[in-house]
Each structure stands twice: as structure tokens, then as C-alpha cells.
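FAQ: What does the model actually see?

It sees only this:
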Amino acid sequence: MDAFLESEYPQQIEEVDRLDNIEDPPETPYTSKYEARKILAALRERLCSFLPDSKDDNPPTSETDPTFPIYSKIAHIDYRVGINCLLTEELASGDQDLMKAVHFMDQYPRVFSRTLLDAYNHLGILWVNRDAADRAEPFLLRALEAYELAKATAGPSEALEGLHTSTLYFMAQMYQQLGRKEESARYCQITLARQLQTGQYDPTDWMENSMSLAAYYTEAHDFAEAERCLHETDEMLKTSQDAADPSMAANLALFWGRLYLEKLKVAREHLLRQREFDEDFPDTEGAPQGQAQEGEGQAQDEDEDDGEGEGEASETPASTPEPAETTQGGQASDKPSEARDSATESRAAEAEARDSAT
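And it is asked to produce this:
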């Protein structure tokens, strides 16, 4: 067993890697993949023969178990077979084998963090492609956790960062399918930035994704971000092989046209709203000077009229009737009427004296 694990097993895995990297002709696109799968199946059978009673359904409960190395390699083979089936479009078988591998590796996340990250990515995009983004979300969220764990335990690497970029890209597709456009745009923007930093991208795909992101920002009226995406696409087009392709340049011009058209629509709507506001709430400062002076004069006249009315009211205060005096018997006194009669007689006497003097 030791000789097999130390020599034959690594050699067979190298052969599988070589076969996976072969690009078969269109007439037989999966020939190399099928050959690799046969080798993996033979390796798995050989590994199972080293287990008690040749059973592989009783995995160890700790890393110190003597059978742990065997079970680890079996789980790795299940992982490789699962991806192989996905590449040959045998989706159900691929899903089943990947889940078998994940079931064991999940018990030892620190040991298999990088492999788990890739497995979660494949399971996530598998369900996205099946239009079942709700089932993809748990796998992709766990892929984010596996990335953080792998970076903490083994440190960052180019391969690890590439897997993480794939996770972010799959999450952008997933949230787009779920109708959560803002989150989809955020992950797409992060993905494009990371691809530029690492240089790991296909220029055509990158430009198409950048223009799609610009379309989202245009629809959301975030014109600054839309312009940034289109400017970056323009720079990419100048330096890529697609510069000679008129269709790519035409698509870019179309996105620029849609952006400017939307900006004009927004400006027109703003102008119409401003006019409606001005009509409902006219600005008096904008009235002709003569009308303004006339209005001020009328207001002044009204103030003067109000002042005169107040003056007249102050000159003729309302008389307050005095209470009638009462006698001890409760009868009203005649003193006020007697006073009035004497005053009248006095005025008549004065008038007669003036007449005789004249």
C-alpha cells in the first residue's frame, strides 16, 4: 500500500492532469476526458481495496485515524470525477460525485479548504446554469468562507485568488438571476477590477461584461459609473485583438448612445418639472416693475385706511351706562333727570341774555 500511495498514485494523477489539458477535436470533444475518468475510477477501486472489508462508507472521525489518508484520496478522486462529468455535460453524475466529496471534506475544512472552494464554485454555477439560483446561493456563500479559511491557513496564491475571482463572478450571475440587481452589479464590478489586477481574463468577455455593467448603471441613472465602465471598455478595445472587429466597436458606440439618450431624457424631465413648479408657485420678484409698484401702493392705501379706522374708534369710545342709584327703599333715584333739566334751563337763560345784549 505504501508503494502505491507514494509512487503509483502520484504518477496516475499526473496522467489525469495531462489528459484534462488536452483540447480534443470537435468530432470527439471528450475523448481525453473519458480516458482520465477511467484512470480515476481504477485509482478509486484500488484505494477502496486497502480499507477494511473493501468498504468506503465508514469514514474516519479524526485526522489521526490510520485510514484517514485513504479516505482523503478517495474524496479527492470523487471531486475530480465530479468536475470531469460536468465538463462532459453529465450534470447529474457530476453533482452526485461532487456532493460525495464535499460530504467528507466538510468534516475537515482546514485540510481541504482550497479543494472545497473549487467544489463549491462548481456546484454553485451548476445550479445557476439550471436557473435555480436559490439553490446555488448556499454553495457560493460557503465558497467565500472557504477562501478566507484557505488564505488564513496556506496564505494567498495566484491559484487561490483566481478561484475567488470565479466565486465573485458566479455570485454576480446568481444575484442577477434572483433579481437583486444592485448586488449583482457590485460583484460584477469587483470581478472586473480583480481581473484587471491579476491579468487573468479574456478581453472579449471582459469588454462584454463591462458594457453590461454600464447598461445597469445607465438604467439606474448612475451616469458617472456608466461612463467609467465605457471608458475602460474603450481603452481595452484599443489594445486588444478585437480592435479590428467592427462589431465590438459598434456595440460600444451603441452603449454610449444609450447613455447619452438616457441623460437627455432625465434632463428633459427635470426641466418639465421645474416649469410646472414655476407655474404653480410664480416668483413675485419676476413681476414687471410697474405692477410691483402698483401693488405696493395699494398695500400702502389699505394700511392708511386701517389706520384711520383705528383713529375714529379711539376718538369715540363706547359709553358705559352707569348704574342707577337706589334709595333705601329700593326705588331708583331721580337725580340724573333733575340734573339734565337744570342744565337745559341754564343754557336757555344764557341764550336769552345774549339776545337782549344784541
